Amino acid sequence: MWKHANVLPVPKQSILNSLNQLRPISLTDTIMRLFERSVFKTEIAHVTRHAIDSDQFAYKEGHNSIMALIKCQHTWLRWLEGDAKYVRVLSIDFRKAFDSVPHDILCEKLKKLPINPYVTNWLISFMEDRKQRVVVDGIETEYLNINRGVPQGTVLGPVLFSIMVNDIKTVNPINQLVKFADDMTLEVPGNENEDTSQAEVDSIQT
């Protein structure tokens, strides 16, 4: 049961017109979440504190959305006070990002981090063979096997997602990418001689 989750669809808006307006909230085992928290504090937190780049403002102690906005504003003003004639700002929101993470790619990224190999193997096992079902008004569906994505409703899910997107970088180091979970803001200074925004978008898409 430690790898099982009950998914509760919660409306994002007061008026529901489409199933896409439902936000899936996963409820997982309480004891397992306590164990996850212990593993994170003792084995993972000190690694991710240095391994997760400063461009990620979600799921990090001392970071929040306000700090992300301040960084954006500071950078724009610095560019405009310099050689930039304008700043292109592109907001990127990956659809179903948490549900679409390929386990094989994430596992390879985990192995590259300086985490105890036994903990790495446990994290890989933590993602495998998970099951979930939908529960609405006491009505339960059958459990379905989950072979992609980071487990939502868990303590480690956000950390695993941050590791997955950590290596998304700008092509040109002058440009800036600000991340808040799966929401990213690409910022590119431009003038009449140079605008690298399209190259950056092409890089992120691949």
Automatic annotation (TrEMBL):
Entry-linked PROSITE patterns: RT_POL (PS50878)
PANTHER family linked to this entry: REVERSE TRANSCRIPTASE DOMAIN-CONTAINING PROTEIN
Name of this protein: Uncharacterized protein
Species classification: Eukaryota, Metazoa, Cnidaria, Anthozoa, Octocorallia
